[in-house]
Amino acid sequence: MYDELTEQDIKKMEEEIEYRKLVVRKNALEAVKEARAHGDLSENFEYHAAKKDKNQNESRIRYLEKMIRTAKIISTDSADDEVGMNNTVTVYFEDDDEEETYKIVTTIRGNSLKNLISNESPLGKALLGHKIGDHCEVKVNDNYSYFVEIRKIENTVDDGTDKLRSF
């Protein structure tokens, strides 16, 4: 299994890895060293907290490095009149008689609470490549699907404000 990422995603992950290795790792090691100097490690909360922070940083570095190693690079290019990566799309949910606006992003940036939906999600897959006025079937699973109508497409770009998911 691999994640589909853009060149911008890879660059942002490489920058985070470098920052974590050069800055966060140094600070975390210093905090562990300082906490260790306080004496009895079995009852030293500061030591355990510092070790936990250090280990979380190392886990994040490993996670990002694995994501980069196993990623499939995808293009962000799309026609101006069709839904593509990083585009903001207003859709009409026919069953609910409601409109919602979403931005299509990669899995590493997905955040449904902020209406950032992954290109690999059922809705994201259904919208990609379609144009204003198209009715798209969103297939959730073999037993359930629903329809949406594309009402508006904004050709937004990756400006770096969409944060990478933690894990």
Write the layout of secondary structure elements.
Elements: E1 4-5, H1 7-36, H2 45-70, E2 72-73, E3 88-93, E4 98-105, E5 116-118, H3 122-127, E6 135-139, E7 145-154
Parallel strand pairs: 1-2, 4-5
Antiparallel strand pairs: 3-4, 3-7, 6-7
Shape: elongated
How many helical elements? 3
CATH class of the largest domain: Alpha Beta
Most strands sheet: 5 strands, mixed
Structural class, by secondary structure, is alpha/beta
What average pLDDT do the residues reach?
Answer: 89
CATH topology of the largest domain: Chitinase A, domain 3
CATH architecture of the largest domain: Roll
How many beta-strand elements?
A: 7
> What portion of residues is helical?
25-40%
Q: Please list the strands of the largest sheet in the order they lie side by side.
A: 5-4-3-7-6
Oligomer description: single chain
> Uncertain regions: pLDDT < 50 for 5+ in a row?
none
- Our Rg estimate from Cα atoms comes to 21 Å
Domains, number = 2
Order of helices and strands: EHHEEEEHEE
Strand content: 15-25%
CATH superfamily of the largest domain: Transcription elongation factor, GreA/GreB, C-terminal domain
